[in-house]
Every structure is written in C-alpha cells, then in structure tokens.
Amino acid sequence: MSTSSLPGSASGSLPSPAVSRVRHGLAPWARIAGLALCALLTLGPVIWTVSTSLHTPAKSFDLPPKIIPTDPTVVAYRGVFDQIDVWLYALNSTLVTALIAVGQMITAGLAGYAFARLEFRFKKPLFALVLATMMVPLQVTIVPVFLELKAMGLTDTLLGLIIPAFPTAFGTFLMRQYFLGMPKDLGEAAMIDGAGPWRVFRSVYAPLAAPGLAIVGVLAFNYHWNEFFRPLILETSTENLTLPLGSGLPPGQTSAPARSPSSSPGVVLSMIPAVVVFVVGQRPLREGITSAGVNR
User: Fold this and answer.
1) Which of 35-39, 178-182, 192-196, 208-212 has the lowest mean pLDDT?
2) Contact 116/176 with Cβ under 8 angstroms?
3) Looking at the structure, do residues 105 and 61 belong to the same domain, yes or no?
4) Is 8 left (phi over 0), alpha (psi -120 to 50) or beta?
5) Quick one: 54 and 111 in the same domain?
6) Tens of pLDDT along 4-20?
7) CATH code at 169?
8) Helix, strand, or coil here: 227?
9) Are both 53 and 183 inside the same structural domain?
10) Number of neighbouring beta carbons within 10 Å of residue 145
C-alpha cells in the first residue's frame, strides 16, 4: 500500500517563508565574506611589505615579527635615497615602460585590425600561432632573446628591454575582439568614398577602439613597471637599472637578501607609480573589458 506525502512533510514540502528569507539574507553576506577573504589574501603581502618598511632596521629582524610597527619611522626610506640613485632608476623605468606601452598599443591595434578585418592567406593558423605564444613561459625564450640582442649589440641597454616587448599576444587578441564587435558598414562606407585600408583603420576604426587601446596601455604599464626578471638578465650596468631592480639590488650586490630592511622601502616606492596608473585608468579598463566581453 503506497503512502502519499502529506503537505508539510519533509519529503515534499517547500521551504517555509522564514527559511527563504534567512537564506536570501545570508547570501549577500556570504559573497562579501568570500570577497573579503580573497582581498585579504591578495593584499596580505602588500600590507606586510609596507609594515616592514616602517620598522627600524634593528626591529625588522624581531621574532616573532610584528605586523603593526610599535614605533613607525621613515628612516629606512631616507636610507634608500642615500644608498641608490632613485631618480635615475625611476627615469629609466618611466622611459622603458612608457615606450613599451605605446609600442604595444600600436602593434596590438594594427595586428588586431588585420586579424579581424583583413583577408589574407593562413590568417586563422597565424592567429592560432600568436595565441600559442601566450603559453610559452618567459624563462624559455629569454636565452634566445639574449643571444639575439647580444648579436645586435643591444645587451645592457634600455633598447634591449624595450624592443623585444613590443609584440603582445594578449593585446592582439583583445584588439581583435574589439574590431570584430564593430559594424562592418562603417568600413565599407569609407571604402566606397575612396578610403584605402590604412585610411579606414586610422580614421574610422582606431578612434572607436580607444577603450581597448587604453586597456592594452594600462596593463602593459603595470606589468613592465614591476618587471624584474628581464632587467635582471639583460642589464648589468648600474646606470641602466630600472627602479624595481635597483631598489631590490643595491649597488655591489648580485642577489637580494632574503630579508633586507632596505629592500622593503624600495619595493613600496616602486609600487606607487603602478598603483597610481591603475587607479587613474580603472574606469577605461573596466569599461573596455566589459565591452570586449560582449563582442563575439
């Protein structure tokens, strides 16, 4: 004899209104707690570095270490300016990073437009090859790049840091998505009026792709400003060091100590320009990523 579930029984009843309200009320707080935990894990090393930079050199080695300094001081920051040429390294970083950002905006815009709007042989295999380069670690290609730069006499020069960084696979992919999302009618109308492919790109599509180009520029600036590995391999002269490398490796040293009181203030100083650029470019970065996400 079969028994049917009664209303309100555990097997067939719906949650009560009170339970539903509790679940809906806890859901936002659970998301906030998860995001707060992720933010804490992300900002933890930054907070630790800033805290260490405010300790005196003697208290930087206290055990157990203190996150909140009892007697905060900026004496370590004055020591950085006394030990290294901060302004020279900042100028080198600004020159290298700005030229790389502009170069990536140009190459990504041109390559993205070519893959999106122009027709040529082997377009799809070439684009797949470009994307495949994103899976190759920098450590794999640094030796061939170093040998090529050495053959051209560009090792230990700022140009040796700038020129190899112009091509960008991610920027090409991003700009291709932008151009694919733009109406073809705009280019066709310009071509009917007598404009060539270069004029169509320069006068019609490039101005509309400004948000995408802003993304490429901001990401390139933040990445290459904080770059440490390539300058460490390619630069040997003190006058050619960038700020992250120069502040982490004081003159006369070939490797950074595990815990150095003088390295934390240098790291904090090198972070400031990247944070400022990211904050200033946050709006176009957010809008550009959103626009690229809805393009096909």
Assistant:
1) 192-196
2) yes
3) no
4) left
5) no
6) 444 444 444 555 666 56
7) 1.10.3720.10
8) coil
9) no
10) 17
Signed CA dihedral, 253, 98, 175, 211: sign only? positive
Residue 24 lies in a domain: no
Residue 155 · residue 234 · CB < 8 Å? yes
User: Which of these, 94, 92, 99, lies nearest to 217 by C-alpha position?
Assistant: 99
pLDDT tens across 30-76, in order? 888 888 888 888 888 888 878 777 776 666 666 676 777 777 777 77
Looking up tokens 């990536």 gives 104
Same domain, 290 and 209: yes
Question: What six digits make up the tokens of 40?
Answer: 């804490």
Give the max Cα distance, the chain: 92
Token duo for residue 253: 């040293």
Copy the structure tokens of residue 57: 């050199």
Range of the structural domain that residue 61 is part of: 43-73
Closest by CA to 221, choosing from 165, 160, 290, is: 165
Residue 7 counted as domain residue: no
Query: For the CA atoms of 137, 289, 276, 37, what is the dihedral angle to 10 degrees?
Result: -80
Whether this prediction's pTM lies above 0.85 is answered by no
Phi and psi based region of residue 257 (left: phi greater than 0; alpha: psi -120 to 50; beta: remaining): beta
Q: What are phi and psi of 16, to 5 degrees?
A: -70, 160
If you ran DSSP here, which 8-state letter would residue 203 be given? I
Question: In Å, how far are 115, 176, 238, 276 from 126, measured between CA atoms?
Answer: 9, 13, 40, 37
CA distance 159 to 165: 10
